[in-house]
Amino acid sequence: VGGSAVLAGGGLGVYYYTAKLDTVGKVSFDKALSIPPLAESTTNASGARVFTLGIQSGETRFKAGSATRTWGVNGTYLGPTIRARRGERVEFAVRNGLDQDTSLHWHGMHLPAAMDGGPHQVVTAGATWRPRWTIDQPAATLWYHPHVHGSTADHMYRGLSGLFIVDAEDTEEPRLPSQYGVDDIPMIVQDRAFDGDNQFEKRVPLLGGALGVIGDEVLVNGTIGPYVDVTTRLVRLRLLNGSNARLYNLGFSDDRTFTLVATDGGLLARPWNTERLYLSPGERVEIVVAFKPGERVELRSYPSEYGGTLGRINGFDDRLDICQFRAATTLSDSPDIPSTLGAAPDLAGEKAAQERSFALESDKINGRSMAMDRIDFGVRVDTVEVWDVVNDNGFMHNFHVHDVQFQVLTVDGGKPEPHLQGWKDTILLPPGKHFRLALRFRDHTDPNMPYMYHCHLLQHEDNGMMGQFVVLDDGEKVGVVPQQSHHH
Ligand code: C2O
Ligand code: CU
């Protein structure tokens, strides 16, 4: 595959694709998809589930030839899947075994800002950080990753990420395929570029790294060219775009219809059938795919509607093979997908306590670059706000908010498409479109300890396309970020 990416040097390490990439037919699908192990836990005296996560460096063999220098959690690349139930108290011992500062952020989780693992919860080299909270949100596919300001792109590119699945009581969960690794398959989709010695390259596209890394090989759970043996009629895929910058336009090689059942924050109210689905960095979807005995079909990323010159730089014109599904000659039956799934977002009828607007442009939000010691605003606890978000330049951006799952009220004044009608924490922002989001801030937190909102294209985030907010009581004022918030 490597040779199919045509690159041209722009000098000083600036590279860009000169042709669109097409890997269809060039991926051999000769390795079984690696399934991240479920994280082990113990229960402590107070009944909390305790997980131990060791962040480490190592080497990973992705392909023939040299091993690749990588980072991982409890392993050399990526990390285990954490699984816990709504209502459970969880505690973590996050040990930083690297020789530099990092952090672990729980993307999509509602929790106190001091436990969030963002830029103010840096874990210094050799230190152990012990966040704890009670899980208080519906079943969903969340994830974790580093969030050190200025180094997030680098740390994630080296391999630090993992899934965090929240389960809810059985009575709340519809009957969907749920045997982990069998008919309920986690898929962390990432792109990487390898150099001649199999090391991760940091190809920087045009305009001084305006986008970040776009790789020419796709990895799923760290496997290049994976296949999955299908043994049941229906399979649920929990897909995370764990890439630094690449947008995927997912579909199957025979253009079959598949069913979207969940987005970032959990189940949709009802299933939605589609043939294509965009997944921008940080977003998750759960889809259910029906298979026929004996068939083979590939999951791919297709060229997107955002093609053209910019599309070439961004990889929007690329056609990529991702994973092959091989159905057994006899498949065990699966229950049909229920016609109703989760609780629909209910914020549309709420009166907005405050409206705000956010324009993303040139590594800034509303003309301001992220400053660690500046809290941009405070919201009032127990209120609903409406945020109008727009991408004001031609590049691709998306928008992620910590602490909450939000509801997309309108897109350019119209009703959002079905895939935007469930709970979301990250949305793709095609240039010029206005997204109105409703957000409810459920819990007060320390006025000195902010949550983040930012573009999840990691280079943009590192470059400053990020801001900070706190959740305040009535009459309370925005605080001051403590100087030293590192954990030794
Ligand atoms: Cu996935 Cu602020 O992050
Ligand atoms: Cu961006």
Structural account:
This protein is mainly beta and 488 residues long. The protein has 3 domains: 2-25 and 175-332, Cupredoxins -  blue copper proteins (Immunoglobulin-like), CATH 2.60.40; 33-172, Immunoglobulin-like; 354-472, Cupredoxins -  blue copper proteins (Immunoglobulin-like). 5% of the residues lie in helices and 41% in strands. The protein has helices spanning 152-157, 206-209, 308-314, 458-463, and strands at 7-9, 15-17, 31-32, 41-43, 49-60, 68-73, 82-85, 89-96, 105-107, 128-129, 132-134, 140-145, 162-167, 184-194, 200-201, 217-220, 223-224, 226-232, 234-241, 248-252, 258-263, 266-274, 277-279, 284-290, 296-301, 320-332, 354-361, 364-365, 377-380, 383-391, 397-401, 407-411, 426-429, 434-441, 451-454, 466-472. Strands 14, 15, 16, 17, 19, 21, 22 and 24 form an 8-stranded mixed β-sheet that branches. It has a 6-stranded mixed β-sheet with strand order 3-18-26-25-20-23, with no helix packed on it. Strands 4, 5, 6, 8, 10 and 11 form a 6-stranded mixed β-sheet that branches. The longest helix is centred in the middle third of the chain and has 7 residues, at 308-314. The protein is globular, with a radius of gyration of 21 Å. It starts with 6 loop residues before the first strand and ends in a 16-residue tail after the last strand. The structure holds CU-O-CU linkage and copper (II) ion (CU). The site of CU-O-CU linkage (C2O) has 10 residues, from strand 9 and strand 35.
